[in-house]
Recover the amino acids of this structure.
C-alpha cells in the first residue's frame, strides 16, 4: 500500500509529528480531567506508563496511517492502546474513540482529510473494535481460570 | 478558589496592620499585645502538639527500609537507608532534616535525546531546601535585633550572606533564595495539575503569609528604610519583658510584625507543625533491628487465638488417619469401636 | 462530527475531591465478606450485602463507632496521629502509586488516599476543622464517605512505595490499615480477606486445607521430588525434637507455580540433611490479618510460636512470602514474643550465627540459602537454568519492610547465568507492586488488578524486549499467584517462578539420577546450543 496520501507526509516529517502530537492531546479526553495534564506531560516511561504508551503508539499509528499502513506495525501498536483502555472504567465507545480523533487531528493540522485517510481510519476503527472485544474476552478467560483454580482447591 | 480565599485573608491582615498603624492605640496593640500573645500561643501550642505526639506510643517497629538490611556479615548493608543501630538512625534523620534525603530520592535523571534532564521533583527538592535554609539564615540574622552586643556568629553570618556586595545596602543571598524558592513553591501549586488538585486553603495561606513577611521585610531593608534603632529598641524591650513602644515605628514594620505574629500563632494549628513532626516519624526514626531486639508494645493485650489443643481436638480423627503424631492420646478421646 | 456523538457517553471530569461520591463497578471492587466468616471470627455486623447495593445495612450508630474507633487509634498509634497532622501536600508521593499510574484516578494519589481520612479527622478532632469546616479541609462523615473509604482503602496494596519518597516518611500502608480496621468495626470487609483469615484461624491455613489434606499435599510433593532426583525424599510432619520448624505460605503446597518452589525447598533440605519438620497446625506463614486489623494479625500469627514451643524446635525457618515476612519481621516478636524458649538460629551446615534474628529467632530462607552458597556447601550447575532469561521482581514487603534485597540476587546469580535487572526506579526499595497484594488478588477485582499491575508489567516488558527475559522470579506467594495472570495479559511469554525453584533446578544432589528436565518437566537447554545462544 503506497498510494500517496496528503502533501507528501514522509514518515517522521514535521507534519506527521504535528498530527500525531495533536492526536495524543485529543485522545487524552477519554481520561478523567484531573489526569490529563500529568498523562501528557510526564515523559519518563516508568513514571508515567499510561501516558508514554499512548504517546508512543499513537505516533506509530499516525506514521502508518499517513504512510505505509503496514499491518506488522499497526497491529501491535493498536493492541497496546486498546489493551490499556480495556481494563479501565471506560465504556466500549470511549475505549476506541481515540481512533476517530485522528480525523480531527489531520483536519486541524493539514487542512483537509483525503479520501484514502477516511478509509484507513475506518478500517483502523474496526480493527480497534475487534481488538477491544478480544481483550475483554481474554480478561474474562483469565478471570474464569482463577475461579476454576479456586474451585479446584475447594474440592481437593 | 481556595487560593483566592488565602489571598484575601493575607490581604485583610495587611490592611488591619496598616489601619492599626494609623491609630495611636492600634500601634501599642500591634507592637506589644499581638506579638506577646502570638508568641505565647506559638510556644504553648507547639509544646502541646509535640507532647501529645510523644505521649502516643509506638506499638510496632515499622521503619520503611530503603536499602539492604544487615543480615549476613559478607553482604554489604545499607547502613543509613536501612539503619540497624541508633547512631545510624541519627545519621538517617540528619539526612532527612538537614538535606531532605527522601525528597532528593525523588529526582531521577533521564535522557531526552542526548541531553540529561532533571525531573521536576529535583526542583522540588532544591526549592524546598533553598526555602528552609534561607529562612533559617534570615531568622538567625534577626538575632541582631534581640541581642546587645550582637553575637559574633550573627555578624559572620551576615558577612557571608552579603558576600557578593551587590547594591547598597548589600543584597543578602538568603533574601534572593527565599523569594525565588517561595515564588517557585507558589507557582508550582498553581501550575502542577496534581499539586493544584490536592492543595488546601492552608497550603496557599502559609505560602502567601510567608511571602507577605518576606516582602515587607525586604521592603524595609532595601526601599523604605525602617528606623533600625527604634526597631531594635522595641525588640530588646520585648525580649527583656520591659515593653516600650518607640514613636518612630513605620507602618510597614507594624504590618511585618503582624504577619509574623499571625504565622507564629497559626503555626501550631497547621501543617507547619511538620517541623516538629518530622523528628517523630516512626517509619524513619526507628532502627530496622526488630528481629534482633524485641520491640515492646506498651498496650499489648491478650487476644482470642485457636490454641493447639483445641485444634487437635477438632481434627483428632483426621490427624489419626493421616498418621500425624498426636499430643493427647488418652483413652477418653480415642476411638472406642 | 463523530466526536460529538461519542462525547455523550464520555466520563464527566471529576471536580473537587471533597465530593465523596464513588461509582462502584464490577471489576474494580472486591465482594463483601460472607456472614459465616465474620461470625466464625467474632467480628461485628455480619449480614448479607454487596458494595454494589445502595443500602449497606450499617449498624444504626455506625458514625459513633467509627469516630470512637478513630479516637482510640489516635491514642494508641503515634504513626496514625502524626500522619493525620503533618502532611504538607508537597505532591512528592503523587505519581509513586501503581494504582494511580495505572488508573490515572487522582484519588489514588497516596496523598489523596490519606486526605480522605484526614478530612474527617480535621472535622471531628481539630479546632480549626470544627470552626472553619471546608475551608480548613474538613469533611462531614457521611455514608458516602464510608463507601468512598471502602473503595479506596481496598484499592491500596499497602506496598509502602509512596513512603519511600515522602519527606516525613508518611506511610499510606499505616493509613490504609487504620482505614480498614475502622471499616471492620462496622462490618465493611471483603470476603477475599476474611475467608482466608477464618480458614487460617480454624484449619491453620488460608485455603482451609485440613490436616490430612495437608499431609497428602506434602507427601505428593515429596514423592515428586523423589521421582525427579531418584532419591528418597521425605518430609517429617509435626515431629517433636526437630532442630528447625519450617513455615511457608500455604500456596506453596497448593498452587502453581508456587509448587515448584516447594520442590526446590525439599530438595535443598534433603541435600544438606537439615533436621526439620513442618506443621499442619502452623501450616500458614502468610497472614491475612495484616489486611484487616492488628488484632486479627496477632490472632493468626500466634500459632507459629505456639507450635515451635510445643515441638521443642531450636529455631524457625520461613519460606518465600511477602506480607508473611512483613509480619514476621516487624510484628511477630512484639505481638506474640518473647521467643525465649528458642535458641539463636545457627546454620547447622556452616555454623553461621544469624545475629540479625537474635530475638525473633526466625530466618528467611533466602538468608539461609545465600549463606550455604557463600560457604560453598551446595554444588550448583547454573547451566541447568540456561533456558531461562531471568529477571527479579522485589516483592514489596521484603524490600520496604525488611530490606531483603541482595540475598535473593546472590542466589539467582549463583544458580543462573542470564540474570537481568529491570530499570532502577522499578526495583529494590522502588519496586512496583504486583497490584494484587493486601488482599486484593481476587478474580472479581481483575480489572483493577490489571491497572495496578501495569507499571510493573511495563518494566517487565522493557527487559523482555531488551534482553529476551522469559522468567520473572520473586519471593512472594501473592506475586506467584497473581503475576502469571498479569503477565499473560500485558507481557505474554514471561513466566513466573520462585527463587528456590531455580535453585532446585541448579542443585546437583549427592547420588541424584541424571536429570534432563527442570522441575516443571521442561527439558534443559542443550549444552552447545545454549553456549552459542549466549556467547
Amino acid at each position: 500500500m503506497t498510494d500517496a496520501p496528503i502533501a507528501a507526509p514522509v514518515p517522521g516529517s514535521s507534519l506527521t509529528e504535528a498530527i500525531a502530537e495533536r492526536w495524543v492531546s485529543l485522545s487524552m479526553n477519554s481520561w478523567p480531567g484531573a489526569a490529563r495534564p500529568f498523562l501528557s506531560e510526564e515523559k519518563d516511561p516508568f513514571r508515567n506508563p499510561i501516558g508514554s504508551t499512548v504517546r508512543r503508539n499513537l505516533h506509530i499509528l499516525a506514521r502508518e496511517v499517513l504512510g505505509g499502513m503496514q499491518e506488522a506495525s499497526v497491529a501491535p501498536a493498536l493492541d497496546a492502546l486498546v489493551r490499556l483502555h480495556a481494563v479501565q472504567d471506560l465504556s466500549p465507545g470511549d475505549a476506541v474513540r481515540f481512533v476517530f480523533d485522528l480525523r480531527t487531528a489531520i483536519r486541524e493540522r493539514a487542512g483537509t482529510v483525503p479520501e484514502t485517510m477516511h478509509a484507513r481510519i475506518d478500517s483502523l476503527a474496526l480493527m480497534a473494535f475487534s481488538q477491544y472485544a478480544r481483550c475483554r474476552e481474554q480478561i474474562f478467560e483469565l478471570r474464569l481460570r482463577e475461579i476454576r483454580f479456586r474451585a479446584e482447591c475447594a474440592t481437593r | 478558589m481556595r487560593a483566592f480565599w488565602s489571598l484575601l485573608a493575607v490581604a485583610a491582615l495587611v490592611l488591619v496592620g496598616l489601619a492599626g498603624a494609623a491609630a495611636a492605640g492600634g500601634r501599642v496593640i500591634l507592637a506589644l499585645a499581638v506579638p506577646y500573645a502570638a508568641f505565647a500561643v506559638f510556644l504553648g501550642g507547639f509544646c502541646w502538639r509535640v507532647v501529645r505526639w510523644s505521649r502516643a506510643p509506638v506499638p510496632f517497629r515499622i521503619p520503611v527500609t530503603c536499602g539492604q538490611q544487615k543480615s549476613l556479615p559478607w553482604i554489604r548493608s545499607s547502613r543509613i537507608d536501612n539503619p540497624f543501630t541508633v547512631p545510624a538512625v541519627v545519621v538517617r534523620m540528619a539526612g532527612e532534616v538537614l538535606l531532605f534525603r527522601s525528597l532528593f530520592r525523588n529526582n531521577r535523571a533521564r535522557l531526552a535525546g542526548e541531553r540529561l534532564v532533571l525531573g521536576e521533583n529535583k526542583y522540588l527538592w532544591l526549592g524546598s531546601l533553598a526555602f528552609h535554609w534561607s529562612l533559617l539564615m534570615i531568622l538567625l540574622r534577626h538575632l541582631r535585633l534581640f541581642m546587645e552586643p550582637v553575637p559574633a556568629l550573627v555578624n559572620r553570618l551576615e558577612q557571608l550572606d552579603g558576600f557578593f556586595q551587590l547594591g547598597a545596602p548589600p543584597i543578602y543571598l538568603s533574601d534572593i533564595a527565599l523569594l525565588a524558592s517561595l515564588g517557585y513553591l507558589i507557582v508550582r501549586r498553581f501550575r502542577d495539575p496534581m499539586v493544584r488538585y490536592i492543595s488546601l486553603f492552608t497550603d496557599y495561606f502559609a505560602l502567601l503569609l510567608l511571602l507577605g513577611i518576606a516582602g515587607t521585610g525586604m521592603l524595609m531593608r532595601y526601599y523604605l528604610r525602617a528606623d533600625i534603632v527604634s526597631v531594635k529598641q522595641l525588640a530588646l524591650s520585648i525580649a527583656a519583658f520591659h515593653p516600650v513602644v518607640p514613636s518612630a515605628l513605620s507602618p510597614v514594620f507594624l504590618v511585618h510584625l503582624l504577619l509574623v505574629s499571625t504565622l507564629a500563632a497559626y503555626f501550631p494549628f497547621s501543617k507547619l507543625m511538620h517541623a516538629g513532626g518530622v523528628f517523630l516519624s516512626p517509619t524513619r526514626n526507628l532502627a530496622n533491628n526488630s528481629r534482633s531486639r524485641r520491640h515492646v508494645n506498651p498496650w499489648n493485650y491478650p487476644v482470642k487465638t485457636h490454641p493447639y489443643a483445641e485444634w487437635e481436638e477438632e481434627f483428632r480423627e483426621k490427624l489419626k488417619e493421616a498418621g500425624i503424631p498426636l499430643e493427647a492420646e488418652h483413652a477418653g478421646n480415642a476411638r472406642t469401636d | 462530527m463523530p466526536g460529538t456523538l461519542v462525547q455523550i457517553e464520555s466520563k464527566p471530569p471529576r471536580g473537587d475531591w471533597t465530593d465523596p461520591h464513588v461509582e462502584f463497578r464490577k471489576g474494580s471492587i472486591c465482594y463483601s465478606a460472607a456472614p459465616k466468616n465474620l461470625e466464625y471470627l467474632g467480628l461485628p455486623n455480619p449480614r448479607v450485602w454487596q458494595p454494589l447495593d445502595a443500602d449497606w445495612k450499617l449498624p444504626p450508630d455506625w458514625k459513633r463507632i467509627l469516630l470512637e474507633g478513630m479516637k482510640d487509634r489516635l491514642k494508641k498509634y503515634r504513626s496514625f496521629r502524626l500522619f493525620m497532622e503533618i502532611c504538607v501536600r508537597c505532591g512528592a508521593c503523587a505519581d509513586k502509586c501503581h494504582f494511580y499510574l495505572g488508573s490515572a484516578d487522582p484519588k489514588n494519589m497516596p496523598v489523596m488516599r490519606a486526605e480522605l481520612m484526614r478530612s474527617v479527622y480535621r472535622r471531628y478532632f481539630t479546632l480549626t476543622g470544627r470552626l472553619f469546616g471546608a475551608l480548613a479541609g474538613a469533611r462531614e462523615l457521611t455514608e458516602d464517605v464510608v463507601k468512598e473509604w471502602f473503595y479506596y482503602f481496598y484499592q491500596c496494596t499497602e506496598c509502602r512505595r509512596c513512603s519511600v519518597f515522602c519527606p516525613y516518611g508518611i506511610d499510606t500502608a499505616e493509613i490504609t490499615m487504620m482505614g480498614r480496621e475502622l471499616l471492620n468495626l462496622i462490618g465493611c470487609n471483603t470476603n477475599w480477606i476474611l475467608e482466608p483469615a477464618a480458614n487460617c484461624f480454624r484449619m491453620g491455613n488460608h485455603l482451609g486445607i485440613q490436616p490430612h489434606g495437608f499431609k497428602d499435599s506434602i507427601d505428593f510433593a515429596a514423592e515428586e521430588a523423589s521421582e525427579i532426583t531418584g532419591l528418597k525424599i521425605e518430609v517429617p510432619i509435626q515431629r517433636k525434637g526437630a532442630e528447625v520448624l519450617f513455615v511457608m505460605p500455604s500456596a506453596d503446597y497448593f498452587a502453581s507455580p508456587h509448587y515448584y518452589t516447594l520442590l526446590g525447598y525439599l530438595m535443598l533440605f534433603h541435600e544438606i540433611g537439615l533436621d526439620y519438620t513442618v506443621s499442619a497446625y502452623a501450616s500458614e506463614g502468610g497472614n491475612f490479618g495484616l489486611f484487616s486489623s492488628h488484632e486479627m494479625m496477632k490472632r493468626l500469627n500466634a500459632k507459629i510460636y505456639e507450635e515451635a514451643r510445643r515441638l521443642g524446635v531450636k529455631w524457625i525457618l520461613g519460606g518465600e512470602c511477602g506480607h508473611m515476612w512483613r509480619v514476621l519481621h516487624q510484628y511477630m516478636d512484639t505481638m506474640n514474643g518473647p521467643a525465649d524458649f528458642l535458641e539463636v538460629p545457627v546454620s547447622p551446615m556452616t555454623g553461621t550465627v544469624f545475629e540479625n534474628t537474635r530475638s525473633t529467632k526466625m530466618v528467611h530462607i533466602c538468608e539461609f540459602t545465600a549463606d550455604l552458597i557463600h560457604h560453598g556447601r551446595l554444588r550448583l550447575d547454573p547451566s541447568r537454568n540456561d533456558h531461562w532469561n531471568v529477571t527479579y521482581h522485589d516483592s514489596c514487603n521484603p524490600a520496604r519492610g525488611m530490606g531483603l534485597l541482595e540475598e535473593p540476587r546472590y542466589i539467582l546469580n549463583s544458580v543462573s547465568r542470564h540474570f537481568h535487572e529491570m530499570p532502577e526506579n522499578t526495583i529494590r526499595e522502588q519496586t512496583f507492586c504486583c497490584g494484587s497484594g493486601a488482599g486484593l488478588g481476587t478474580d472479581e477485582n481483575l480489572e483493577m488488578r490489571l491497572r495496578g499491575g501495569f507499571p510493573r508489567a511495563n518494566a517487565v516488558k522493557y527487559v523482555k524486549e531488551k534482553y529476551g527475559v522469559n522468567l520473572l522470579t520473586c519471593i512472594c506467594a501473592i506475586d506467584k499467584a497473581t503475576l502469571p495472570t498479569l503477565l499473560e495479559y500485558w507481557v505474554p511469554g514471561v513466566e513466573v517462578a520462585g527463587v528456590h525453584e531455580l535453585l532446585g533446578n541448579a542443585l546437583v544432589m549427592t547420588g541424584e539420577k541424571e536429570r534432563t528436565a527442570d522441575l516443571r518437566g521442561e527439558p534443559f537447554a542443550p549444552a552447545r546450543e545454549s553456549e552459542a545462544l549466549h556467547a
Observations:
- The two ends of chain A are 57 Å apart (CA to CA).
- Confidence is low (pLDDT under 50) at residues 1-9 of chain A.
- Helices of chain A lie at 14-27, 36-41, 49-66, 71-86, 92-96, 98-110, 115-155.
